[in-house]
Amino acid sequence: MNTNKGSGMSNKAKIREEAKKLNPIDDLMFRTMAEDKAFCEEILRVILSDPALTVLESTPQYAGTNPQGRSVILDAKCVLGDGRKIDIEVQKANDTDHQRRVRYNGAILTTNLTDPGVKFENVPDVCVVFISRFDIFKGNCSLYHVDRVIRETGKVVDNGFEEVYVNAKVKDGSEVSELMEVFVDDAAYNSKFPVTSGSKRRYKTTEEGQQVMCEIMERLNRETEQETRLRINQLNAILIKSKRYDDLERTTYDSDYQEQLLIELVPEKA
Q1: How are beta strands 126-132 and 85-91 bridged, if at all?
Q2: Cα angle 193, 109, 116; round to 5
Q3: Looking at CB atoms within 10 Å, which of 59, 132, 253, 260 has the fewest?
Q4: Nearest-5° Cα angle at 184, 179 to 187
């Protein structure tokens, strides 16, 4: 009885320590901060070089659905005063084809916001802002704009879809670079970005903010455990149905093999 209690308290202490390490570059903290549209407005004004930009609506963890394929959870969807729709994504690891991810997310957001039968000229303008810890294009720039260019003439053309890439790796003294330092450095706060710095300070240093983060982490841990159990049950059902009894038996003692089969047969949700 006492052992279990001690173990539980130890787990809570571990979660608290992990929560203290979070920064805005982390999905969990970013999505929590993005509940405040003033935070999104402040960072977008810097990233999009528009000090007059306004955010009318901010929706963290926006579910973009695709009935015919893979759906996605966007880190934050914003609606700007000029009508543009923005998908803000934060990414720490350079572990996949992020340009295609940006392309897909932009397409999902466009289709989810467009009513059937709408005229093409009324398809909403969409921008994906991709914030990463790494320099995705290795061009030693903290900010990249990807344009559609006619190869033969060099003319930039606009179809209403915009890609902007920001990274925290390149330190070039720009305002964007200063903002990114607040995103990734534990001790970095900057009076130029009062909303971002204030929100970060709250979740990292105050008891109230730490409690919020710990509760979210505990809930996500429970959901992850439940999702893992569900996926294992689905895997077992697939193996039984296909009479792969040897594989089923092996998964009971070979966790690496079980994970391999999970990846092959029961893909995780995006």
Answers
A1: parallel
A2: 145
A3: 253
A4: 90
